[in-house]
Design a protein that fits this description.
By secondary structure, the chain is α+β, with helices and mostly antiparallel strands. The protein has 4 domains: 116 residues, no CATH class; 257 residues, no CATH class; 107 residues, no CATH class; 110 residues. Helix content is 35%, strand content 23%. The protein is built from 19 helices and 22 strands. The strands form 3 sheets. Strands 1, 6, 7, 8, 9, 10, 11, 12, 13, 14, 15, 16 and 17 form a 13-stranded mixed beta sheet that branches. The chain has a 5-stranded antiparallel beta sheet with strand order 18-19-20-21-22, with helices on one face. It is globular, with a radius of gyration of 40 Å.
Length: 706
């Protein structure tokens, strides 16, 4: 029998109504039943018993009556007439059978209607509610297994596959605009740097300022390359500040300035394509002299460097339980592999969160390039965010030291932004449905995928809906108080101009021809598989990829929706701090790399020591006599960052290092630290307050490396 009595009942009734097993399977698949369960039902449910109908006696089969000489002859006509007419009892039997058939058929139809199977099966979504409907269902998911993957493969080129070629209608003009903005960026940098060197009152005119431009910047100009007029310049705040205004020509220039290091809207004022720089503006500005190539063109050109037999796969799978209040439990796996023809690699990492504690295990890693991680393969590392991080080894560089804060910070950031992001996505989905941004390439249909009977939706983006969708989306973004969301509205007009251009139309048409978007949905409306496939066709100049193409596929799969989740704590985990200490000792075990590590960590001592000086106007409040280093309170070496760098440089044992500091005039003003150099017996590396960082014989004897 199948796992569903209702399914078995339907199969039995359908057979009674004359349906074949193939017809039954077809109807049940359309209704969303699992094929394996259907087969169990059709194989186990017995077919209806066929009663044997006795042969009907007809006059043609009767033998002629031969009367005996002693008996009177009989008239056979009445007998023949009675055999040709059914009796009243026969009418009753036929009527009862007819009623039973009607009742059986009605029950079957009623069952099919209630279960939404057969002719009553309903497609979960239409073009008008696909996106918002899927998001609504996503909000109902409390537990599930997520699997996300990306694959890249070189395969034989399909018929009709062609490289992307775009003709920019105003390419010459565009190149000139980029060159002009590049020249402006050089001039602005020169002017700002010279203004930054001035002590006291700034020059009153830009001509006066230009006289101070150094010789190596003499190619810069105070005149705009297009108008030939000097850039607008004036003094502000009674000469204590200035305003240098430059009008750029490209949207890319404005975008680059906003993303440049040290940009602040309060000190670098932007109005359209006009930018006003002040003394608070960052002094270095760089813009490209060439227009950026379209993404598809760049992608095709990059593919010329690929070997013809490359393949790569990367998958993320996660199980989460969102039903718990506060801290959610989850487990995660990353699995990747690649083949570059002559080089292969594999990566596999597990992570989980249980009751606020994190656990990480590296199963596979390219040890040749990440040798420090090789030492922890197969070991569960326990990360407790509430544990003290004042360990002796936290102050120096270590590949593992950022893990303790990285995972909790990432989860906290996700939780903080999740509600606003989900709300924004729902509004975006609503706009997408209003504009019918997605249309169906063909009618949705049931098919087997991932071992499940799912509705398949082949989607196509409607080009004429993109601009109306974008305009409504920008209106919605303008209402947001979230800075990350509101930043999406930057350069609206430039984006809108591009979406309405022929160049975008060409790009869209190419993508439409070379991409596929498929969504699978289960019978309850939950998304099961979301897949995006893009065909990348290398240019003809890529000889090693002649007659080949690359297939890039992104896939997201959801299963085990709202099923119980069991996440168990690993029984044999090792605290993160223990791993860090062991790794530090391993790095400092002899050899050139160990010596380099010692030098690098002693350099950290110098940086931390200067921070102590800035804070206390001295290297601590107590002197330290020459001897084995210790974190004596009040001394420079009592500072946790200074001491931890020393400990890491000394392979985890600070007593192997020699420290010294002296005081003068009531403050500690000199120090020195030396650590034996691994692999160089009798020599040490030394740093001191005079700025020395060098090799010495033996260890320090005073507060100096000399």
């Amino acid at each position: 029998m199948s796992s569903s009595p209702e399914l078995d009942k339907y199969i039995a009734e359908a057979r009674q109504n004359g349906m074949s097993d193939d017809q039954i399977r077809s109807e049940l698949l359309k209704a969303g039943w699992d094929l394996s369960n259907i087969n169990l039902g059709t194989n186990s449910v017995k077919p209806p018993i066929q009663t044997q109908t006795p042969p009907v006696y007809t006059p043609t089969e009767a033998k002629p009556f031969q009367p005996q000489d002693s008996e009177p002859a009989y008239n056979t006509a009445p007998i023949e007439q009675s055999l040709a007419k059914p009796s009243h009892r026969g009418f009753k039997i036929l009527a009862v059978l007819f009623i039973l058939i009607l009742l059986g058929g009605g029950a079957g139809l009623g069952y099919a209607y209630l279960q939404k199977i057969g002719p009553f099966a309903k497609i979960p979504y239409t073009e008008n509610d696909l996106v918002s409907g899927l998001l609504s269902k996503l909000s109902e998911i409390n537990t599930s297994l997520y699997t996300s993957s990306v694959s890249f493969d070189i395969v034989p080129r399909e018929a009709g596959a062609e490289p992307f070629v775009i003709q920019v209608s105003n390419e010459g003009q565009l190149r000139q605009q980029y060159q002009n903005d590049y020249d402006r960026s050089r001039s602005v940098s020169s002017l700002l740097q010279n203004l930054g060197y001035i002590k006291g009152k700034y020059p009153s005119t830009i001509q006066e300022l230009s006289k101070g431009i150094s010789t190596y910047r003499s190619s810069s100009s105070i005149n705009d390359p297009t108008t030939g007029n000097p850039y607008a310049y004036k003094l502000t705040d009674n000469g204590r500040d200035f305003a240098l205004t430059v009008n750029f020509e490209t949207d890319n220039a404005i975008k680059t300035i906003k993303k440049s290091y040290g940009f602040a809207a309060s000190t670098t004022l932007i109005n359209g394509k006009g930018v006003t720089f002040t003394k608070g503006s960052y002094k270095y500005l760089y813009l490209a002299s060439e227009p950026p190539k379209p993404f598809l063109v760049s992608l095709g050109e990059y593919s010329r460097m690929l070997p013809p037999d490359i393949s790569a796969k990367l998958a993320f799978s996660a199980t989460s339980d969102l039903t718990k209040s506060g801290q959610s439990d989850w487990k995660f796996n990353l699995d990747g592999s690649g083949d570059f023809g002559d080089l292969t690699y594999a990566v596999n990492v597990d992570a989980l969160s249980k009751d606020g504690i994190y656990y990480v295990r590296v199963n596979k890693i390219p040890s040749l390039f990440l040798s420090s991680l090789a030492s922890i393969k197969g070991t569960w590392i326990k990360i407790d965010p509430s544990a003290s991080s004042t360990s002796s080894l936290y102050g120096g560089y270590n590949e593992f030291s950022s893990i303790s804060s990285g995972i909790p910070q990432a989860e906290e950031s996700y939780k903080k932004n999740r509600a606003e992001a989900v709300d924004f996505i729902k509004k975006t989905a609503s706009i997408a449905d209003q504009e019918n941004i997605f249309t169906f390439k063909k009618n949705p249909a049931l098919e087997m995928a991932d071992g499940r009977s799912l509705y398949r939706y082949d989607l196509k983006i409607k080009k004429e809906a993109i601009v109306p969708f974008y305009k409504k989306l920008m209106t919605e973004i303008a209402k947001s108080q979230n800075s990350q969301i509101s930043s999406l509205s930057e350069n609206q007009q430039g984006t809108l101009d591009y979406l309405e251009s022929k160049e975008f139309s060409d790009v869209f048409d190419y993508l439409d021809k070379n991409t596929d978007i498929v969504i699978y949905v289960d019978k309850n409306g939950f998304p099961a598989i979301i897949q995006y496939t893009m065909r990348i066709v290398p240019p003809d100049t890529a000889l090693q990829l002649k007659d080949k193409q690359a297939n890039l596929t992104f896939k997201l799969m959801l299963s085990k929706i709202n099923e119980p989740v069991s996440i168990e704590t690993p029984s044999n985990s090792k605290p993160l701090q223990e791993v860090i200490d062991e790794n530090a000792k391993n790095l400092n075990y002899g050899g050139a790399s160990a010596a380099a590590t010692t030098k690098a960590n002693l350099s950290s001592v110098r940086v931390s020591a200067e921070l102590v000086w800035n804070k206390n106007s001295g290297y601590g409040t107590k002197a330290f006599s020459v001897g084995a280093c210790s974190n004596l309170s009040g001394t420079l070496f009592g500072d946790k960052d200074v001491y931890s760098s020393i400990q890491l440089a000394a392979g985890g044992d600070a007593s192997k290092a020699t420290c010294a500091s002296t005081a003068s005039g009531g403050k500690v003003d000199k120090y020195a630290v030396s650590v034996p150099l691994p692999g160089s017996e009798g020599y040490s590396w030394c740093v001191d307050s005079a700025g020395n960082s060098k090799q010495i014989t033996g260890s320090i004897k005073s507060n100096s490396c000399n």
